[in-house]
Design a protein that fits this description.
The chain is an alpha+beta fold and 164 residues long. The chain has two domains: 105 residues, PH-domain like, CATH 2.30.29; 42 residues. Helix content is 35%, strand content 30%. Strand 7 and strand 8 form a beta hairpin. The longest helix has 20 residues. It is elongated.
């Protein structure tokens, strides 16, 4: 779809694709240290006869291995006259409380939406190559901009730091 096209939720004001998750480049040292920590905890679990912990360590290792081999799918993100769409999920502006932009290139280029009445309080959207000023101008017509929120979410920062 092109910007300006009509959908069942109204005219598209902006659209781009984002990965379903960020796949970070990991160094050889990251792999060695991860395997080392896993081996240490596995040996500790076996020496203390804590077999449940050993099984949990093996499961975590298996999940990390499978996750490492998989590539993220690309998801369509649309800003429309009546709300936003992230893949198949639509959020009307009534469901969203605010938005804020955290833009510190090249590492951090995020657009956040606050969600009302949900377990998920924030929706982070990677801006990719979008102009944050232009996206902000579009959203100001529909949502309150929370200017007090200047930092990325803790889980996003930890994920980027630990490369997971």
């Amino acid at each position: 779809m092109a910007t300006g096209d009509l959908t069942k939720y109204g005219r598209i004001l902006a659209e781009w694709q984002i990965p379903e998750y960020i796949k970070y480049e990991r160094s050889f040292a990251w792999y060695i240290s991860t395997i080392g920590f896993g081996a240490f905890f596995l040996v500790h679990a076996l020496l203390t006869a804590n077999f449940l912990f050993a099984i949990i360590i093996l499961l975590i290792g298996s999940i990390l291995f499978i996750h490492e081999r998989r590539h993220p799918d690309m998801i369509d993100f649309l800003i429309m006259e009546t709300g936003i769409a992230l893949g198949d999920k639509f959020y009307s502006y009534k469901e969203l409380s605010s938005f804020w932009v955290v833009y510190e290139p090249p590492a951090v280029k995020l657009l956040y939406f606050g969600v009302q009445g949900s377990l998920r309080k924030e929706i982070p959207i990677h801006l990719e190559d979008q102009n944050p000023v232009q996206i902000r101008r579009i959203l100001l017509d529909y949502l309150y901009e929370d200017l007090e929120r200047e930092d990325e979410a803790t889980e996003e920062a930890l994920s980027r730091l630990l490369r997971v």
